[in-house]
Amino acid sequence: MRRSLAQMEEQPATRAITSGRGASGRSLAPALWASSVWQSTDMGDARRRATGTRTGEFYSRYSNPTVQSFEEAVAALEGAETSLAFASGMGALTTTVLALCGKGDHIVAQRNLYSATLAFLQGPCARFGIDVTFVDGTEPGAFAAAIQPGRTMLVLAETPSNPRLGIVDLDEIGSLRGPITVCDSTFATPLGQQPLAHGVHLSLHSATKGIAGHNDATLGVISGERDLIDSIWAYSVLHGATPSPFDALNGLRGIRTLAVRTHHQNASAQFLAESLEAHPGVSAVWYPGLPSHPQHDLAKRQMSQFGTVFAVDLAGGAAAVEQLLSRVQLIRVATSLGGPETLVCHPRTTTHASLTDDEAVDQGVTPGLLRISVGLEDPADLLADFVTALDDTKR
Ligand code: PLP
Questions:
Q1: Each residue of 243-299: pLDDT tens digit?
Q2: Distance from Cα 136 to the centre of ligand 1, integer Å
Q3: For 189, left (φ over 0), alpha (ψ -120 to 50), or beta?
Q4: Any bridge partners for residue 284, and if so which?
Q5: How many CB atoms lie within 10 A of CB 275?
Q6: Which of 61, 178, 255, 354 has the greatest number of C-beta atoms within 10 Å?
């Protein structure tokens, strides 16, 4: 029987190829609209474009066709009515928070968050009079218990969380009533989990990571219902964390290969996590795909892929980390994730350097913790490089 295009597009890998083609005519590659401004035909046209919501062909901070194509593709993968792109993941996060919260409002956020998100909630939010309660996002019922009816405007979750891969129950977040719920889904990519399908209002990504996927774009994106995204857009044109069309082009290029990249990277991450778990120089491995992960069953329920990132605790602590980082040859010491090169980073001195010692202990960011973003190299080569560098540290 002949299948319709809509039936074929039920598969995310197919949607990643078919979506986001609106602004490119018959060109298979996206068109790069570098223009920052468009000419109007007359006063009425200029007024309509200036006062409309997300109206095209006016001014790039309001809307840009290349960015729009990227947004359409992300929305198709997230199962969202619409998406809105930003200049970075932090641009997406800060714009969303400031669009939805003001003085006297309250946010419930999990404690285990990307450190810049945490720093934003603790610093600027406090300065603007926005109150934040931090909870253990892995603890059932913790978010609900912290909600102050009528005052809590936002619930912010991140799953899997950076850097220790804690899992938040998306059904639980999606069932909360009152506040707008946001899930930073960066570590999963839109192919690994779909927060909106669980009832979460907004899914947020640093598209700098797996979505763009080549370490050549700095980009963020949120997805959800049109009314909510439109209201955030109205603030975003004032905030100005607008994505560059070139980065959006690279983001869309990344989406075309997202399925095949994440398939390979997830399999390699699983292989490396399992192999390193058995190594005497490693005291713990944190990866949602491992049966030893405390929330493996929850991860199995809500993730279709366990992700391209895992973390290890080295038995030799900071000294072992220092030696390993100077000895790896194939694996590169760098602090991003989701790209083609396998990267290792030491959260305590880089991404999470701003934590106090107490916060670091609280979040499990130990001196021996390493976060590994698995790339596209042969997994056996990666294991050999890691184990050789690890064994060298014992000499
Ligand atoms: N969210 C998570 C989970 C991240 O890991 C990061 C960056 O590492 C961000 C948000 C911020 O993204 P960006 O660097 O694109 O601003």
A1: 999 999 999 999 999 999 999 999 999 999 999 999 999 999 999 999 999 999 999
A2: 20
A3: left
A4: 313
A5: 17
A6: 255
DSSP state at residue 11 = S
- The CA–CA distances, whole Å, from 11 to 15, 76, 107 equal 6, 11, 35
Rounded CA separation 121/128 (Å)? 10
The mean pLDDT of 117-137, rounded to a whole number, is 96
- Ligand 1 centre and the CA of 221: distance in Å? 11
Count other Cβ atoms within 10 Å, centred on residue 141: 10
Ordered domains of the chain (ranges, CATH): 9-256 (3.40.640.10), 259-392 (3.90.1150.10)
By the 8 A CB rule, do 365 and 115 touch? no
- For ligand 1, pick from 158, 161, 162 the residue to mutate: most ligand atoms within 8 Å of CB: 162
Cis omega (within 30 of 0) on the bond before 179? no
pTM comes to 0.96
* Alpha helices per DSSP H over 52-158: 65-78, 89-100, 115-122, 124-127, 142-146
- Which ligand 1 atom is the nearest neighbour of the CA of 351? 8
Pocket probe mutation, ligand 1, options 161, 162, 206, 345, max atoms within 8 Å of Cβ: 206
For the CA of 161, the nearest atom of ligand 1: 3
DSSP one-letter string for 66-84: HHHHHHHHHHHHHT-SEEE
Average pLDDT over residues 156-161: 98
**pLDDT digit string (tens) for 40-82?**
999 999 999 999 999 999 999 999 999 999 999 999 999 999 9
34 pLDDT more than 90: yes
Tell me what the mean pLDDT of segment 23-32 comes to: 92
How much of the chain exceeds pLDDT 70, in percent?
99
Residues with CB under 6 A from ligand 1: 88-90, 114, 116, 158, 162, 184, 186-187, 206, 208, 218, 220
> What's the CA dihedral at 112, 117, 118, 123 to 10 degrees?
-170
**And the tokens for 79?**
């199962």
Which value, in Å, is the radius of gyration of the alpha carbons in the chain? 21
Q: Give the separation between CA 10 and CA 1, rounded to whole angstroms.
A: 16
Say how far apart CA 203 and CA 232 lie, in whole Å. 13
